[in-house]
Amino acid sequence: MAAAENSRIALPVGTNLDRFIMKNQEAFPYATGELSQLLRDLAYAGKVVNREINMAGLADITGAYGGQNVQGEEQQNLDVAANIRFSRALQKGGEVAAVISEEEEEMIHLNRNGGYVIAIDPLDGSSNIDVNVSIGTIFSIYRRKTEVGTESTMEDVLQPGNAQVAAGYILYGSSTMFVYTTGAGVNGFTYEPSLGEYILSHQDMKIPETGSIYSVNEGSYHSFQPEVKEYIEKCRERGYSARYIGSLVADFHRNLLKGGIYIYPATAKAPEGKLRLMYECNCLAFIVEQAGGKATDGKGRIMDIVPTELHQRVPFFVGSKEMVEEASGL
Ligand code: P6P
Known about the structure:
This protein is α+β, with helices and mostly antiparallel strands.
């Protein structure tokens, strides 16, 4: 984990994201402003995607794009649009040497002089777009390992989650939120469209130690491993609430606020799990740990997994510390 200053700059709720990033940059004596600019570039692209999502039904940009992504999943028009928006914003910003994206088979080289690499799922849960269910962007930021000025390599993009310098998500829901961490706590900003600003609304977010919400696709119950079935039986016996809307960012965000656990275990259809380590699990693992929660693959800490492939899938248990510990036996 990057040596993060643990000083939390306490700013009043209502502060905008730019000012918050700037004030927190001051807490990092060696910050050169590049990471701050990078976060601003991501937040800006999120505003553009938010506008396109809100217009989707009217502008006839919902529906399938007609192609498949590297996962063999049918791409939605907005998947492709979001991928373009984020790539362009990062290209223009100049801080990013390379990007790995759910929508791109190979790593994308952007700026040789960039000091950072990004792993991003530009629009997760996109199959929900047409039915107006919340969807999200998920991202991780790493410092590159190779020399600035040279072309980035796989060594730069295949780093374990514990090397992240920042991570976050944008939730396009009943309101749009930008939630991120740089290793000094988690803060949430609500987008105010009339101002075009993200406003600090959830300062120093903490997930409850335990909860009574469990999020899992019980349609795959029969192919779950015995220990997962056993935990789900316990949730049922205790009368927990089953909440699963098929959109990871929305399920994660609700559990972050209320306490709960999200599980995507190995199944018959997805023997390694469905979710991707680099641009889904590591990002949310960094956030949940900074909020006092836990994230495992059922055997060990998500952020300690040394990646071997760009689109590697892992089983995912994430949420309230006590619930994840019980569910994954750790
Ligand atoms: P299933 C969306 O495709 C996603 O990646 C997550 O957002 C969501 O939680 C999960 O997959 C849904 O998968 O197999 O339950 O439909």
